[in-house]
Amino acid sequence: MTDWTAIIREHGALVWRCAYRVLGNQADSEDACQKTFLAAVEFEAKENIRNWPSTLSVLATRQALMLLRSRIRVRQRTQTLPVNLPKDPSLFEPGQQAQATELADHLRIALAEIDSVQAEVFCRVCLEGLTNQQAAAELGLTTSHVGVLLHRARAILKEKLLSFAPQKEMLP
Questions:
Q1: Any idea where the RNA polymerase sigma-70 region domain is (predicted)?
Q2: Could you tell me if 94 and 86 are in contact, meaning their C-beta atoms sit under 8 angstroms apart?
Q3: Residues 6 or more apart in contact with residue 79 via CB below 8 angstroms
Q4: Other beta carbons less than 10 A from residue 91's beta carbon
Q5: pLDDT tens-digit profile of 17-51?
Q6: Spatial separation of the C-alpha atoms in residues 160 and 32, rounded to whole Å
Q7: Under 8 Å between Cβ of 60 and 37
Q8: How would you label 26-54 residue by residue, b for 16+ Cβ within 10 Å and e otherwise?
Q9: For 139, phi and psi rounded to 5 degrees?
Q10: CATH code for 4-80+93-164?
């Protein structure tokens, strides 16, 4: 029998961090965590889980992306992604901070619009810091397939983010 209390105690912070990196909002991340553990209960009933951190990270990313998509459909806008600011705030100009926050908002919207597998690969590699090999192992894909999906996701996200950029007026 699975000791869910121990699993939640041991891996709860990991699940929350995965969800928060995608969602950037505490309340939404808590919702995603609850959904992740519910999905884990269902998944564990069907299959024996050998690597809890990996399984929970994948489930958390999927739940966060699903929640992000639903929130964006409803609100058409998301909360800001926290920016890793320098320890001395005087080193970070307000204009730069505003641009980084706006870019993070646009990235969230773009992630919600692209293919779910591409979004998941992008999140696992670019936001979670996994290697292509680690992401492939966790997602049940080949390393080359992860590379292709990541390349496609980056290209689509770049195009979408460029479309959000304000058009500079042509000077005479």
A1: 8-70
A2: no
A3: 23, 24, 25, 28
A4: 9
A5: 999 999 888 999 999 999 999 999 999 999 888 89
A6: 25
A7: no
A8: eebbebbbebbbebbeeeeeeeeeeebeb
A9: -95, 0
A10: 1.20.140.160
Residue ranges covered by each domain of the chain: 4-80+93-164
Residue listed under structure tokens 């979004």:
119
pTM for the full model?
A: 0.64
Do 15 and 57 meet the contact criterion of CB atoms below 8 Å apart?
yes
Determine the residue type at 62: R
Q: How far apart are the first and last CA of the chain?
A: 74
At 104, list the tokens.
């993070």
Token pair of 96 as six digits: 């730069």
Residue 73 has φ and ψ, to the nearest 5°, of -60, -40
Q: What is the distance between the alpha carbons of residues 119 and 111, in angstroms, rounded to a whole number?
A: 6
